[in-house]
Amino acid sequence: MASIPVQKSYLSTAEVSRLFGVTETTVKRWADEGTLRCQKTPGGHRKFEIRQVVEFAEKNDFDPVGALEFSDDDDLGPRIQTAVLERSYPILVEAYIRRALDPGADRLFPYLSYLYQHRIQLWEIHDLVIRPALQELGERWVRGELCISQEHEASYSTLDALARLQCQIRIKPPTGQSVVCATLGEELHEIGLRCAAYLFASEGWETHYLGSRIPAQSVQGAILRMRPNVVCLSASHGDPACLREGVTQILGAASEVGAVVLAGGGLARVLNETAGGIDASRNSSRELVSFIADQVRAHPSPDAGDEPPAPRQ
């Protein structure tokens, strides 16, 4: 059985120096000046929390020029270290698929954390690694190369890894805005909606995640009670007539509280055509980051921090 990489929440001085291609003396100076926050062990060793290292890199426009060691015993280990620097996403997707299909091994979260440590942004992880990997797994199931239990296990392992990764993500200052996220009808696929909710949360939004199979009437009640700025809906399949009826209820509640309704998933286009009134459709995390930034610019909070940056090209 493959060994499971030990996931760390902190980097050492040597690892930070390797990541940014500077000397350890420089890293220690950053820490002593307070530019890069750290904690010290009882023995006096500096330890740098991952989210603080990423925040430091973003503020100073530093991109990793070196790769941390990726401890794994398969043949992709050295290739992953190179791929994160070259942003070679096909290799990163291949590595994700291998880990998703490794039964009983907790290998997805350490892998996603490794990508984030190298300043691969959350939307890039969603769009360029997880999404194509899950699409490939779905196609393998259709071709009969995987059984349904393997496909389901990969999906649930992905949800678990995303939830754990969120604990390491740098959360921006509160924007004063909120979002309600829910799927429509009998929709069970919620990975896309989870990704959307995590993006909103990382951008400083108060995020209310209602999950899957929530009746439209309940979503309507949540909107009236919570009065969010945005309602994020998702669906990948379902009966258009039923969806139309549910969306009509939700649109009425959103209009009453002045919320923007955002549609995602495979039926975003159908929802626009059949229901009308959907304010915007976003089918990728990259598009969603831009949408969130536009909303913050349009409704700035006096207590909000820096404006969210546009996605890197």
SSE layout and pairing:
Blueprint: E1 10-12, H1 13-20, H2 24-33, E2 39-40, E3 46-49, H3 50-60, H4 77-86, H5 89-100, H6 108-117, H7 122-142, H8 148-166, E4 178-183, H9 191-202, E5 206-211, H10 216-226, E6 230-234, H11 240-257, E7 260-264, H12 268-274, E8 280-281, H13 285-298
Parallel strand pairs: 4-5, 4-6, 6-7, 7-8
Antiparallel strand pairs: 1-3, 2-3
Helix pairs in contact: 1-2, 4-5, 5-7, 6-8, 7-8, 8-9, 9-13, 10-11
Structural commentary:
The chain starts with 9 loop residues before the first strand and ends in a 15-residue tail after the last helix. The N terminus and C terminus are likely disordered. It is built from 13 helices and eight strands. The chain has two domains: 156 residues, no CATH class; 121 residues, Rossmann fold, CATH 3.40.50. With 313 residues, the chain is α/β, with parallel strands linked by helices. Helix 7 runs antiparallel to helix 8. The radius of gyration is 21 Å and the shape is globular. Strands 5-4-6-7-8 form a five-stranded parallel sheet, sandwiched between helices. Strands 1-3-2 form a three-stranded antiparallel sheet.
